[in-house]
Amino acid sequence: MRMFVRIPKHLSEELQVLTTAQHNVGPSNRLLTHTGTTAQHNVGPSNSLLTHTGTTAQHNVGPSNSFLAHTGTTAQHNVGPSNSLLTHTGTTAQHNVGPSKRLLTHTGTTAQHNVAPVKDCPLTRGTFLLARNG
Questions:
Q1: pTM for the full model?
Q2: pLDDT digits (tens, 9 = 90+) for 53-86
């Protein structure tokens, strides 16, 4: 698959295409990227570094640090202080996460996650995400 990416003008700017998602997570509000089907997540107060490879992921997120898995394309997320149990089925997901309880969607292979108390989520523009932190 062809990927077209431009060099960010600023270190705080990331451009992701198609199968890449932007995460602005945890108290540190790190901007993290996953490309293809492999991701690094540094999330929640514990700032654990977690990986998902292929279509199976482990998420250890929020103050409760629950260990959660998604297998294939269906996932359970129990995240943030509210510990709501949320599902994504197929490739569309609703996430209502963190104290702000924002409702966020990912469709196809592009996702928005805004899972910490602090930052607003980036906007989706077409098939890619443009995110600015700060």
A1: 0.18
A2: 333 344 444 444 444 443 333 334 444 444 344 4
Report d(CA 106, CA 115) in Å as an integer: 14
Tokens 């945890």 correspond to what residue?
26
Half-sphere exposure of 50 (CA within 13 A, CB side): 23
Structure token pair of residue 117: 């108390």
22 in Cβ contact with 30 (< 8 Å):
no
How many Cβ atoms sit within 10 Å of the Cβ of residue 8?
12
Distance in angstroms (rounded) separating the CA atoms of residues 68 and 53 = 14
Domain positions in the chain are 13-132
Tokens of 83: 């510990």
